[in-house]
């Protein structure tokens, strides 16, 4: 999805929490009190952001759509998930198309990583969690309260039937504890890279998960898309047993059950609990140019009619987080989103902030610091609320020209009111260069990732600096920014 595409602000839901209030109407809803406040966050010395970027992996692994997460109970445990080629395709480089998902684990807060593709890819003699899969994509992840890793992924099987699955791995293991599949559809991309002609029916897309650490309920939101008309609706489900079984999918907004012909394109659903335990799902309708919030007071058994947060052209997939630090901004909700309110070709990252539990929102905070009207696009923001309450956002921008994109991190220490911006990539990426191969899965992706460790923040992105016209290539790059005292 992570594009849950895919899931970093999910970590803010499970960050540094304790205690439990009385259950809600269906026995699951509970408030989320914060721990005592950490020391006040500090701005980063800009010099510390220069030249610190590096490949996330030592291996040659072509990658896109990278998500990263941290175990809130052990910030040295980090995981990254990314779309990669089958290892059996490496000999085909540079045409090793990214059609699978790999997982990298770190025991030292991102200093070193151990990488392995999910087992069972075509040509792999080992059994995997997704028998018969031809491709895996849009993976996002979150840590369970016991430290296990929960990965949500779209699974594609012939003849191009797409399902939404979750798989749990005990920490450090590549053998799944369980796999659950609870939504499927069909997709074809006509005439591109040998994919069959468009199939009738729905397919699923852009999933996101979050976990309530008090009740241990897992929430999921995703889109059902109708390929022929490019329409979509948002649906929701939850699991009371850690992801093993799920409730029936529930559409978040009318029309239901039939939405073909509605003109809607609902996408990017992100479930999150408020500080008092209510459940919100934030999402966009691309055709209506509107960013919405749907609220449930019975932990997802039903939802109130959606309310518009803001209306601007160019909305895409949001990234959402909440401050649960116990500090001065405790309970504040944040959503980062790109839009074109300043004109097409001049897309900016805006932060949407609610300081009253989602009742009202301010969408006026422009995160990137370049001049308005300079025709520089900024895309795919992902945010994390750090343990000290700072808000950090990673995104890419065409800062050196349409084919010279750089990664940036912006950080706020005043509850999202102002930001300091840092360019963290030391060389540009050309989207045209990394796209130069016969595949439909090679563009700049739909999402990046950002999280934290015991020292500061860790941001990851798809980097194409090693790409050439003859050898198109992109891989996962990262930067660690020291924002806390050792």
Description:
With 486 residues, the protein is an all-beta fold. It has one domain: Neuraminidase (6 Propeller). The protein is 2% helix and 40% strand. It is built from two helices and 28 strands. The protein has helices at residues 10-13, 431-434, and strands spanning 54-55, 64-71, 74-84, 100-106, 114-117, 135-143, 149-157, 161-169, 178-186, 202-211, 218-226, 231-239, 250-251, 266-273, 279-285, 290-296, 307-311, 319-322, 333-339, 348-354, 362-366, 378-385, 391-397, 406-412, 420-423, 449-452, 456-463, 475-482. A four-stranded antiparallel β-sheet has the order 1-28-27-26, with no helix packed on it. A hairpin with a 3-residue loop joins β26 (449-452) and β27. The radius of gyration is 20 Å and the shape is globular.
Strands, helices and their partners?
Elements: H1 10-13, E1 54-55, E2 64-71, E3 74-84, E4 100-106, E5 114-117, E6 135-143, E7 149-157, E8 161-169, E9 178-186, E10 202-211, E11 218-226, E12 231-239, E13 250-251, E14 266-273, E15 279-285, E16 290-296, E17 307-311, E18 319-322, E19 333-339, E20 348-354, E21 362-366, E22 378-385, E23 391-397, E24 406-412, E25 420-423, H2 431-434, E26 449-452, E27 456-463, E28 475-482
Antiparallel strand pairs: 1-28, 2-3, 3-4, 4-5, 6-7, 7-8, 8-9, 10-11, 11-12, 12-13, 14-15, 15-16, 16-17, 18-19, 19-20, 20-21, 22-23, 23-24, 24-25, 26-27, 27-28
């Amino acid at each position: 999805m992570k594009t849950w595409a895919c899931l970093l602000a999910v970590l803010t839901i499970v960050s540094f929490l304790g205690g439990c209030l009385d259950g809600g109407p269906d026995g699951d809803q509970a408030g989320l009190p914060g721990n005592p406040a950490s020391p006040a966050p500090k701005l980063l010395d800009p010099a510390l952001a220069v030249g610190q970027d590096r490949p996330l992996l030592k291996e040659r692994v072509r990658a896109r759509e990278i998500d990263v997460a941290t175990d809130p109970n052990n910030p040295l445990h980090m995981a990254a998930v990314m779309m990669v080629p089958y290892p059996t395709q490496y000999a085909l480089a540079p045409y090793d198309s990214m059609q699978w998902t790999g997982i990298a684990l770190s025991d030292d807060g991102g200093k070193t990583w151990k990488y392995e593709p999910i087992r069972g890819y075509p040509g792999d003699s080992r059994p995997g969690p997704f028998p018969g899969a031809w491709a895996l994509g849009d993976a996002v992840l979150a840590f369970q309260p016991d430290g296990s890793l929960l990965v949500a992924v779209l699974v594609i099987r012939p003849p191009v039937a797409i399902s939404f699955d979750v798989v749990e791995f005990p920490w450090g293991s590549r053998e799944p504890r369980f796999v659950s599949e609870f939504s499927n559809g069909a997709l074809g991309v006509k005439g591109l890279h040998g994919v069959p002609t468009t199939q009738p029916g729905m397919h699923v897309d852009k999933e996101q998960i979050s976990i309530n650490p008090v009740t241990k309920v897992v929430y999921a939101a995703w889109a059902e898309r109708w390929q022929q008309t490019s329409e979509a609706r948002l649906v929701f489900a939850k699991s009371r047993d850690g992801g093993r079984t799920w409730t029936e999918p529930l559409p978040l907004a009318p029309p239901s059950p039939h939405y073909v012909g509605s003109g809607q394109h609902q996408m990017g659903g992100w479930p999150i609990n408020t500080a008092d335990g209510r459940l919100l799902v934030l999402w966009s309708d691309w055709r209506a140019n509107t960013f919405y919030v749907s609220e449930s007071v019975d932990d997802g058994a039903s939802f109130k009619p959606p309310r518009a947060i803001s209306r601007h052209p160019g909305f895409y997939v949001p990234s959402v987080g909440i401050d649960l630090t116990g500090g001065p901004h405790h309970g504040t909700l944040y959503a980062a989103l790109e839009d074109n309110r300043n004109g097409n070709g001049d897309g900016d990252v805006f932060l949407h902030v609610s300081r009253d539990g989602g009742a009202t929102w301010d969408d006026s905070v422009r995160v990137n610091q370049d001049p308005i009207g300079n025709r520089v696009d900024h895309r795919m923001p992902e945010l994390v609320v750090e343990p000290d309450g700072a808000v950090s956002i990673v995104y890419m921008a065409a800062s050196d020209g349409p084919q010279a994109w750089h990664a940036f991190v912006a950080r706020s220490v005043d509850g999202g009111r102002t930001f300091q911006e840092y360019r963290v990539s030391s060389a540009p990426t050309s989207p045209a260069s990394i796209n130069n191969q016969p595949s439909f899965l090679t563009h700049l992706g739909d999402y990046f990732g950002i999280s934290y460790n015991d020292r500061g923040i860790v941001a990851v992105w798809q980097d194409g600096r090693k790409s050439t016209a003859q050898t198109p290539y992109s891989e996962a790059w990262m930067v660690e920014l020291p924002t806390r005292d050792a």
